[in-house]
Structures are given as C-alpha cells and as structure tokens.
Amino acid sequence: MKHLQLLFTLFICLFVQQSLYAQEQLNDSKSETFTVKGLVRESDNNDPISDVNIQVNGGSYTSTNIGGEFRIDVRIGDEIMISHKDFETIYYKVKSDEDIRVEVEPLVDRSYIYKNKAKENSFESAIDSALFYKKISAEKSIQFITESIPKSTSVKQNAEAFEVLADVYMHWKQYDLAVTNYRISLNNVKSNDVNLKLAKAYYNNKNYQESLAIYNSLKSESLSNWQNVLRQEGLGDVYVKTNQNKKATTAYKEGLKVATVNNIQSKITDLNSKLGEVYNEEGEKEMAEDLLENSVVLAAKENKTREVEQKVKFADFQNVNRSYDAEIQTRKEIIKDIDAIEKDSIIDNESAITKQKQNYKIGNAYYLQKDYEEAIPYLEKSIAEADKREDLIVKKDATKKISDVYLEAGNIDKARLAFEEYTKTVDELYNKKEQEIAQAARFNKRIAEKQNRINSLETDRKLTLSQVELSDEKNKRQQLIIYSLIGGLLLLALTAHLMYKYIKQQKLANNLLALKSLRSQMNPHFIFNALNSVNSFIATNDERTANKYLSDFSKLMRAVLENSEEDFIPLEKEIELIELYTKLEHFRFKDKFDYTIEVDNTIDVDAYKIPPMLLQPYIENAVWHGLRYKEEKGLLAISISKKRIGEIEITIADNGIGRKKSKSLKTENQQKHNSKGLGNIKKRVSILNEMYKDKVDVFIDDNGNQGDVGTKVVVTLKKD
C-alpha cells in the first residue's frame, strides 16, 4: 500500500431517512446503544484492510478482521475514529444505525481523476443511489438496482443488490416481491439480518407459518443482542396473529429481558406496549394498564413523537375498557402534543397521531357517555381539520357520528343535514378510491415490468459468468453449456412462477377493492330508501310513529354500518338485521302483509357466515314490488333450513303480484332502470364466489303457477 493518501467515501446503507425520524434519533443520542457494522477496503481492487483500529471517543474499541469488517457499539451522535498506519485517521459521526463503508484509494498522479470518474459508474454508486431513492421513488430506486446487477463482481455484491431490492419492496408494501428477493439474496449469501427481514416480509404478507419457521430456525447464540430482540418480537407478533397469546407473552418477555439488559430503549418501549395489548386481550386489565402506562413513560425519554404514539395506544385501551373520562383527558393532552410536533414537521394523514382523528375519538367518547353537547364541538373540529387535510376517511366517520349525535339529541333537521353531508363524502371517497385503484394498477404494472427486467439481467449475468468459466476450462465446455442452459430455463420458470403469483395476488387485490366499492354504493342506496319511509311519517304529521320508527331505524343503521367493512359476517347477525328491517317495513305497510321468519333449530347459526346486506334487497323487492300492490293482505315468509351437511337454504317467498305483473306496472323509464341494490348484490356474489369457491348461490323464480304467483328467492350458503 505504497504512497497511499486518503481519498475515502463513506456510504451509509439506507441513505435517506425521514427528516422527522432522523431528528428524533438525534434527540435520543444519550439513551440508546446499538451495534453498527462497517467495512474498510481499498476501492481500486476491493481488497479488505485488516487490523484497522476502530474506536468510539471515550467508549468501545475493536479492529477489522481479515475480511475488513467490524462491529462496534455506539449511540447516535458518537464519533468513530478509524485509524491505520497506512492511511490518515478518519473521523465519522454516527447519524443512524446503518452500515458504514470506508474506501481508501491510491493516488497515482492525475490517473486518480480517471479512476474517480470510473467509480461513478461502479456497483457501489448504483446501490447508494438506489438507497437514496428508496423512500422517495420506488421506480427510480429499482432502476438503479437494475443498473447495479450487471456491475456485480461477486456473490456478496449480488446478495446485497437483491437485499436492497427487497428492502425497497418492503417500504412500498409489495411484500410478496420482497419475499422473493430476500430469498434470492439468501441463495447467494447466508445472513441472519436477511433471514430476519425475510421472516418479517412473510409476516406482513400474512404467511404466518413460513414466518414462524424462519424465526424458529435462527439460533440465539448466533445472533447479536439486537437481532435476538427482533427475533423474539417477531415471534410474539406471529403468535398474536395466530391467537396464541400465551406463547406471544413468553416471546415478548424474552425479548424485553434482552432489551433491558442491553439498554435497547426503543425496543423496551415497544415490548412493554405489545405485552400490555396481549394482557388486555387476555382480560388482565390491571396488568395491561400498568404496562401501557409504562410504555408512555419510556417513550417520553426517547422523543415527543414516540411518546404521543404510545399515548394513542393507551387512549385506545381506555376506550376499549370504557374509561371514557380518562380517555378524553388523554386525547386532549395528545392534541396539545401534536401542536408541538407540527411546529417542526408534517404529520401524514395515515398516522394515528393526527388532530382530526383525536378530535373524532374525543367526540365519540362523549357520544358514548350520551354527553351530546360536548361531543358536537369536537366532531365539528374533526370535520374542519379533515377538510383542511383532505382526509375523507375521517370526515366520513365524523359526519356520520355527528348525524348520530343530532339524531340521539332529537334534532332531526341537523341530523338530516349531517347525513346528507355524510353521503356526499362517501361519494367523494368512492371517486377517490377509484382513482387510487387505477393508479395502483399502473404502479404495479410498472413494478412488475422492472422486476422482470431484473430477473432477465440476473439470468444474463449468470450466463455471462458461465461463459467466462468455459473459456478457462475448454475440456468442460459442453457440460457447462448444458448447465447454463438448464439454469436459464430454471430462471425463466421462476420468472413465470413469479408472474403467475403476482397476477393472482393483483386479481385478489382488485377483487377486494371492487367489493369495497360495491359496499360503499350499497349503504347510501339502502339508507336513502329507508329515509323515504321516515319522510312519509313526517309528511303525515305522525310524530309519535316517526319517532318510534326512527329509533328502530337508528338501530338498523348502526348494525349496517358496523358490518359494512366486512366481506362476511356471522349468519346470526344477518338474521338480526333482516328481522329489524322486516319489522320496519311491516310497521309501515301493516295493512299490506304479514311476515314470518323461521330458523331451523338444528342449524348452528354461529357456524355459517354470509355477506352483509345480502338478503335485505330481496326482502325490499318483495315488499315494494310484490306485496305493496296486492289488493288483499299478503304474506312474506322467510325461512332458513338445512339443505345438506355443511349447506343451508335461505328462502324469501311472497305471494305478491309476481315479477311479470310488477314489471307491467312500471313506467317506461322505470323498466329501463334496473334495481341498483340487486345489481350490486349480483356483482358481489360473483366476486365472492370467485374468491371463496362458490360459497353463495342465489336462485329467483315464481312462487306458484296461477294468479298472484308471487316471487321466491332461494339463497344457498355453504359453511366455511
């Protein structure tokens, strides 16, 4: 290493962190110790430099091994001194927990200028650029990774490229693609860090058994203290999702023990919080409250944002346990804290610590206490803040809640106005979601194209390496060509498999979005029809009847909206809903029909699930288009009976005027306009059957052969 002069470049993996997070970590420099990894090498030939002295000023000391690598315990803000007899001492200030890379290049007159220009197009430069854009632009980041792969000169670099690619997919919530690329990285080089990331990717992708298998395969003795904490926390998270709370408690306690001994402050806070949530699930309220309260105290020692996040979890605990006064006080403190945070940073709408969400929850807590005068101002603040931040989701919830408050308080006019605002917000949200679906489809298509390009480059890279080896071993050329072709075919097969998996998952995602869109149309349609009934009573000055009807109607609305986000609900809930709805319709048309609802006693209604609001449109059609026009009093018969093992039959039959006569009574315009409710039901049933393998079947026919034949709807439902 003759005539060496220091010309180093410090590259830190995951180069750009969110400004808020970085500031918070700087504030926490005195409390948390963690292990940072580093590498020292020559840049011109990538040779590692061993026996380099690595020392934290006034703290830990270590040296690089034969591979030029080192690990050292540091805090944010510490200064690391990197010294060796062959180059000038380097001083580096710790700003995050990311890896440090130190490169030393020889200076040979002006030839360094050309080497430096060549370095701009190196593998490391492309990877650093990818890390820079990771949280800014997924497409740019992936493009730089695509450029880095042909420049890879070792399996270690190849593993690093695919690890960074998987990290990018994790950040942008493309968990299936993250799993694929972490596995490719591990196929190149085994790494505990990458295994932990793979387990987390499986968890986020809801592959809980695969995640559990990875965590269990890692041995504690081979992991650092930080990695052991991550492993135990990950195990606990999986056990919670698989309803194994006792195992989750054990895992979290093991992780907390390691974090406490090694003063890993952020994880001490997180594990206290998670343990509290598990104890709350198990009914141990006092223990849960102590842990969650402790997590707030611990988070306050880190930074203000962490403290507020834990306060929100504590307030949610108070809400679940109906400690509404305490919850209100906690959330009022949170709003003051948010004002302090927003002076230096912007809080995203997706965050739990937004003022619109906290004001909404305060208003909801007052509503649950039936303190309507106090609830209204906070709900109004939530709506105003949501308007300002363009948060349609919170605005939707807040306008619906304030409508409920006015309704409970007896202010029908304001309740109606608030509900009209709610329906307008639902329509705006629906349009916004449609745009987001289109944008997501385009984004996913572009990401898939780039992933295919990377797979192709990886294939080309391996084929190129094979050809280089063939030139050195001519006697094995034929055999190596065969192996290379087989490798290429396997990679093509892998690409085809990934594309199939990707298309399948995108189809599932599109189906879920379509279901949400249909549900968002269904509720306003149903509510509009029901409010027509209320309007009729009000128009006839029948105030007592209107009030009684509104009381039952509000119960029905609450049940409908509680179920509106679910694909399936228990059959028992759907039965309660249609009983309440049929009661309301009979309340209005007592002179037009009677009704019966019969449920076979041998059916275990808890064992069956059904799409919410599936039966109501058929009952509505029976009343409004069949029985309402019948001259004498009709009958609506609803029955639930067992068809065969694991399958039941729900029949909605009326002896009304029948479909043919009902159609003849419609105007020409009405005949052109099909029922929106029934149309949505058909679409929902079609999508659900595609997703859940023909779980629901609907058959509509005449109910008889002569006269007022009526209509019969038969819904066949299979057990999960």
UniProtKB/TrEMBL annotation:
<dbReference type="Pfam" id="PF06580">
    <property type="entry name" value="His_kinase"/>
</dbReference>
<protein>
    <submittedName>
        <fullName>Tetratricopeptide repeat protein</fullName>
    </submittedName>
</protein>
<keyword id="KW-0802">TPR repeat</keyword>
<feature type="domain" description="Signal transduction histidine kinase internal region">
    <location>
        <begin position="515"/>
        <end position="593"/>
    </location>
</feature>
<dbReference type="Pfam" id="PF13174">
    <property type="entry name" value="TPR_6"/>
</dbReference>
<feature type="signal peptide">
    <location>
        <begin position="1"/>
        <end position="22"/>
    </location>
</feature>
<feature type="repeat" description="TPR">
    <location>
        <begin position="356"/>
        <end position="389"/>
    </location>
</feature>
<dbReference type="GO" id="GO:0016020">
    <property type="term" value="C:membrane"/>
</dbReference>
<feature type="transmembrane region" description="Helical">
    <location>
        <begin position="480"/>
        <end position="500"/>
    </location>
</feature>
<dbReference type="InterPro" id="IPR036890">
    <property type="entry name" value="HATPase_C_sf"/>
</dbReference>
<dbReference type="InterPro" id="IPR010559">
    <property type="entry name" value="Sig_transdc_His_kin_internal"/>
</dbReference>
<keyword id="KW-0472">Membrane</keyword>
<feature type="coiled-coil region">
    <location>
        <begin position="412"/>
        <end position="460"/>
    </location>
</feature>
<keyword id="KW-0732">Signal</keyword>
<keyword id="KW-0812">Transmembrane</keyword>
<dbReference type="GO" id="GO:0000155">
    <property type="term" value="F:phosphorelay sensor kinase activity"/>
</dbReference>
<dbReference type="InterPro" id="IPR019734">
    <property type="entry name" value="TPR_rpt"/>
</dbReference>
<dbReference type="Pfam" id="PF13181">
    <property type="entry name" value="TPR_8"/>
</dbReference>
<keyword id="KW-1133">Transmembrane helix</keyword>
<keyword id="KW-0175">Coiled coil</keyword>
<dbReference type="InterPro" id="IPR050640">
    <property type="entry name" value="Bact_2-comp_sensor_kinase"/>
</dbReference>
<dbReference type="InterPro" id="IPR008969">
    <property type="entry name" value="CarboxyPept-like_regulatory"/>
</dbReference>
<dbReference type="InterPro" id="IPR011990">
    <property type="entry name" value="TPR-like_helical_dom_sf"/>
</dbReference>
